Amino acid sequence: MTPGADQATVLVVEDEQHLADLYADYLADDYEVRTAYGGADGVESLAEDVDVVLLDRRMPVVSGNEVLAEIEDRGLSCRVAMVTAVDPDFDILDMGVDDYLVKPVTRAELLDVVDRLRQITTYNEQLQRLTTRKLKRNVLQVEKPRSELQDSERYRELQREIEEIEQRVDALAAELDVDERDLRL
Prior knowledge:
single chain; alpha/beta; Rossmann fold; 2 domains; 6 helices; 52% helix; 13% strand
């Protein structure tokens, strides 16, 4: 990915500065990276333009769980991965995180998790677009005579758009290993 307006922003929240800087270095070639050296700094660094947060769970003063609660309270739409030395337990089922990595982590693991979280965002956006288009199509099919639909270039364009979005959703689902039939209207 080249730097530019479409580049995703990753916020690394880690109280160990050397790790935060290492993670930032791992990601810097592919993403815009911001670092926060602790939970309080992480809360201050949260913004609408952050796409992915890599969050240490156990930090002094303001924990990763508290940063996560702030993300949820603000209704931010970023994806969150815990990157922590805390082994997962069943409590992660109730956490609003998308992924969970146990330290130590490699460059490849960090890149994979950020890439996957970005793909999930794209998948959800495409699925929402598909649902919206299908609902509009359904309204037209109920309200308009079949002959009028067949004569409408706008309706044919809508049908083509639905097919294209379905193909993108299917491709993304295959990459994410998701059975989209369970998620789609």
